[in-house]
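The instructor's notes for this session suggest beginning with a concrete chain rather than abstract definitions. Hand out the sequence below and ask the class to guess, before any prediction is shown, which regions might be ordered.
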Amino acid sequence: MSEETGLDDIHGFFQFVGGSDSEGDDGLFVAARDRKQKFDVDQINYTPRIDEDAWFDRSNLDVASWISKHGGLDEILFTVQRLYFKKEYMRAADICRQTINAYTKCADGRQPRIANIREIIDIGACASMQSDDLVSTEYFYDWYLQCGGMNPGYNSFQAKVLTRLGRLEEALQQHILYLEQRQQDAQVWENIGLVLKSLAQQNAELANAQQVFLQLAMASFCRAFLIIFQSKSWKQIDVVIKRRRLQIQRLWLNAIDTAHLLFITVDTSDNAAESESVWLQLQKDCAVDQLQLSSLPSNCSDSLRKSVKWITLQLSTTNISSDYTIDTHDAKGVAEL
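After discussion, reveal the predicted structure:
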C-alpha cells in the first residue's frame, strides 16, 4: 500500500503535490481512468485577471457596446466602483449616467429593476454628491425612485440624498420610515439630529420654532448615544473599539454645538463624551415632554408637523439607564398621527 501524503490536494484527475519528484505506486499498473496527473504547485504561475492593470476598464468603448458584451454590466459596475474608491468621482458619475441611458434604450423603456443597475445608480448618486454636482445627484435620485424598494436601506439612501439636496422635510420622512422598521440605529438618530439642526437654522428668525428643533436635535443625539452605550454587540478588538470611540466623539461634537445654540452649559472635561451622567444632564436640560409643538411656524407643512410629532413621541421615552426599553406597543407610524 502506498504511503499517503497529508499535504497533497486531490482534485478530480489532478494531484497537486508540494514539489516532490516521486511518482508513487499509481503508475502503469493502475487503470487509465484511475491515474492522476501530478503537478508541482511551485511551477504554477497564475495571476488573476482582477490584478492585471485596467483589464476591467473598457470605458473607451461605446457604453451601449460594452453593455451588449457578455458580463458587460458586471464589468461596468466593477469599473465605477473602482473609480469611486479611487476618488475619480466625475468619471464614475459620467459612466453611470451613460450606462443608464444606454440600458433603458436596450430595455425598450422598461424600468431598471435589476440589481446591477440599481447599484450603478447608487454609485452615480454618491459620486455626484462627492463632486458637489447637485443636478446629477437629482438625476440619479429620480432614477433610483423608479427602481422602487421596500427595505430600510432604500429609505436610508433616499434620506441621505434628500439631505444633500436640501429637501430636509422629505429626508426626515425617510428617516422615520427607516426607524419604523429598525428603531435601534444610532447613525440614523444622529442623522435626524443633524436634519433638525438644519431646520433650526432655516427658522432662526422664529425663536420658538428654532427652540423646538434644537431641543429635538439634542434629544436625538442622546438617543443615538444611548443605543451605542447600551449595545452588547461591540466586540473587544481594536478596530471595533476605535470605531465606537469615533462615533461617540462625533456625536459629542454635535451635542456640544447644539448645547451652545441652546445656551446650555456642558461639561467638556476629559472623558465627558462617554460619561453617562453628562448625557443624563443633557437629556434633562432639553426634556422633549415639555415641548410646545404649537410653536412651529404657521407655514409649517402637515408632513413636517407629523414628523416632528412622531419624533417627539419616540424621544419622550429616552432614558439613559440600564433598564431602558422601547415601548413599541404604543408607537404609531407617521401616517397614523
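Then share the key points. Residues 207-230 form the longest helix (24 residues). Residues 191 and 254 are 10 Å apart (CA to CA).
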